[in-house]
Amino acid sequence: QVQLQESGPGLVKASETLSLSCSVSAHSISSGYYWAWVRQSPGKGLEWIGSVSYGGATFYNSSLTSRVTMSVDTSQNQFSLKLTSVTAADTAIYYCARGGGDYTAFNIWGQGTMVTVSS
Amino acid sequence: AVQMTQSPSSLSASTGDRVTITCRANETFNNYLAWYQQKPGKAPKLLIYAASTLQSGVPSRFSGSGSGTDFTLTISSLQSEDFASYYCQQYYSYPLTFGGGTRVEIK
To answer: Which of residues 4 through 63 in chain B touch A, CB cutoff 8 A?
Structure first.
């Protein structure tokens, strides 16, 4: 079955760039779907960060647009997130998910990765 | 942005109870509304999409209804494994938005 797995540093210094990747197995990214990042601050609700299509089209949450870049690497069958100038407010569990575009719900999720921003 | 308001934010119920969670949007949209279940330390899991379509593998005690701005998730007979948090989400327009969540606790 389709599985998603996040990877990246668990600790990032304030003002630096958070970089995460999501590897997709049992499904070729280039065959379709949008791919998304969603985060959850400790004890809080879910926040959509952005979505990227298999062709590279991107949609970002307006609250993060100036700091977010998402991309797809079809050769590696993975997609990535970069969030610049991080602060303590960016400390959260980051989930990658399939969906979030073309009127598709998030139907498959990665297990999530905790990222802490340190001062 | 479409704002999603869930109620209640938490509830206590017993096994076997019928539970209803409401999600209200601040504007109408086609029924691109999903419900997710999240257990502690786990990723959310899609339960229902298109307001009322059960995701494959999800027990039939879960159901969704509603249209326009008002949507409902119902658990017909609460089971022990259903104690979790539940979130609604609209996927009709960007930014995609979630409700604040409802925590279902054991009475």
So the answer is: 32, 34, 36, 42-46, 49, 55
**Dihedral (CA of A75, A80, A85, A91) sign:** negative
CA B71 to chain A, closest CA, distance in angstroms equals 16
Q: Give me chain B's average pLDDT, please.
A: 97
User: Which residues, in sequence order, are bridge partners of residue B86?
Assistant: B37, B102
CA distance B101 to A13: 30
Q: How many angstroms separate the Cα of A111 from the Cα of each of A7, B44, B78?
A: 10, 9, 25
Q: What is the mean pLDDT of chain A?
A: 96
Return averaged pLDDT per consecutive 10 residues of chain B, 107 residues in all: 96 97 94 97 98 98 96 97 97 96 95
pLDDT for residue B30: 86
Using DSSP bridges, classify how beta strands B102-106 and B10-13 pair: parallel, antiparallel or unpaired: parallel
Which candidate from A63, A100, A111 shows the least CB-CB separation from B96? A100
Whether A25 shows a pLDDT value over 90: the answer reads yes
Query: Exposed, middle or buried by CB within 10 Å (0-12, 13-18, 19+), for A79?
Result: buried
For residue B29, the model assigns a pLDDT of 83
Partner residue opposite B95 with nearest CB, options A48, A104, A105: A48
